Amino acid sequence: MKTAGWTRKDLLGIQELAAAEIHFLLDTATAFKQVGQRTIKKVPSLRGKTMVNLFVEPSTRTRTSFELAAKRLSADVINIDTSASSLVKGETLKDTALNLQALQADIITIRHSAAGAPHFLASRLKASVVNAGDGAHEHPTQALLDAFTIREKKGRIAGLRVTILGDILYSRVARSNIWLLTKLGAHVTLAGPSTLVPRTFEQFGCRVTHDLDEALENADVINLLRIQHERQRRSAFPSIGEYTAVFGLNKERFARTKPDALIMHPGPINRGVEIDSDIADCDRSVILEQVTNGLAVRMAALFLCAGGARP
Amino acid sequence: MSALRIQQGRVIDPANHVDAVRDVYIVDGKIAATGPKDATVWDATGKVVTPGLLDIHVHLREPGRSDKETIETGTRGAARGGFTSVVCMPNTTPAADNTGTIAFIKQRAAAAACVNVFPTGAITKELKGEELAPIGSLKKAGVVAITDDGHCVQNNDLMRRAVQYAKMFELPVLDHCQDYTLAADGVAHEGYWSLALGLRGWPAIAEDMMVMRNILIAEDTQWHIHCQHISSANAVALLREAKRRGVPITAEACPHHFTLTDESLKTYDANFKMNPPLRSERDRAAIVEGLADGTLDCIASDHAPHCAFEKEVEFDHAPFGILGLETELALSLELVRQKALPLPELIAKFTSIPARIVRLNKGTLTPGADGDVTIIDPDRPWTYDVGQSASKSRNSPFHGWPMRGKAVATIVGGKIVWQE
Q: What is the pTM of this model?
């Protein structure tokens, strides 16, 4: 059974979603957030369903979040991570997928270094596929939890000025955020070194600047991204020291931001690189609330795609 | 004596500036001005009769990867596509960097090929771009050109010496133009779609840089370099300017580069992954313009078969390349229907011009020439079903496409090797 307002089997990206679908998922997440505040943090929505966490790229935070989300929905969870995976033994993704289907998995959450890997699975499997991050393409649940957090803190998304700062080129988080925020009517500014924030991103409906002070001025939300060393095979800037000097969010720059500007980060943070350590811990930082909200958003995503009963 | 009279077709023979309804005779395997009264008749009324088509860029995969394609299956595909001659690339296993491999290819072709097969030799040993292959011996063994196709000689000094050396043997040098530092590990044209899809970008400048390099070396050595599969608008502009100055440089385009753009990648189907990559609409339009004004001399398929299991993987992990021989003519005839160029000019890009590039006495209906003829129904509608392909592989992005125009007979040395 599919829930009204959501007819998709899979959650592959934000780009293909309509604004109404995004709002519907966020509203569903609001209901699930309350589950986490109860003494018994569990509902039977996905009882009897099996979810496979297929992580073909290392991750702790996202994998744990999906696992916990599924368990709170009473699903059975199996974790397959890279080191244990037969993918390193030369089995193709197609064969892995067919084997998971043979094991009657209902939901597959996949994290993969290759963009499009979730789409590859979704087109071949009856199971619901939830993208937990594919290469530099999309990380839809991250953008949804970011939006959930912004909406909770600011009461709205439309009309807000959101600055995304850092390594945009290699960031799936940035892409999913750009799609989502522009669909919901926010004004998005991308900032960072010209080698990591190409002008072509303007075609996504956002503003590109290489002047950090200008990017931070008037921003209602500042979302900092980590430098993606693992996807950057060539140096895009001279050194970490220079990056921090030119694009790091330090106290001096922080002092010039709007007094109610939210500080966000998808984690893991590199203290002293993209963000001053004290700023990461300040009262305007919602970094840990993002993590909490991630559970609610992922519960909603799993529930809507796998089609359980209402909570 | 065997004789064939191809009767009353529209004969387009660009080498002889012919475009008229007439008969074509093939007597004892050669084109003839006339023939005996009892010649077998092939009624070509309403059809276009051309010199046998040439494709100077195909991968037949033999020796080494006969699971992807063989000389037999690849040439059957060529015949179906209307091609009577193919020039095969040296990136086999072992590479065609030695006379033994060339002898093997020629021997297999003699035994199993249904169209003419002309091998190329490598520029460098094992296509590594480090030391020159025995180019003089390769010439003696029968190669029509040298190329490291699939690879590109990065060392400019080595490339310059290769061209100087090849000039002595009058061997054209075909180059796959790819600067490795700029292309890096890219899998898709660097632009809007690579950003939107999160695929690593492969900028057009990676091609432009090597095209410029080749223009300078061709000018410096005064010897012929042929740039393979041009995909970028700036490369077309560079070539146009160089040709105006009389630099001995030629270039080819592939049907996929003037038919598709990088927008096709949005399904992550690896059948749209090729080298060089599908580029932007601006690039696609520039390729059409380059073909129309003659900057791009000829059309070739870059027929590159790969097994299904190799292509049915993550986009990043799939090999580059697609089938081309059976869809090439129909996709190119679209250029005529779009009025980019007239039919005789298109036919020249498959006959007299590629023959001149690789210095073959082919692509002409001059009496005495080899009896290679292609008969084309230029408007015949059909649907491409890759499952019915003669190739051993199935990696085509054009499966299920409605097509118009088809070779209805392919004649090699007077023998009909394909007809329907």
A: 0.95
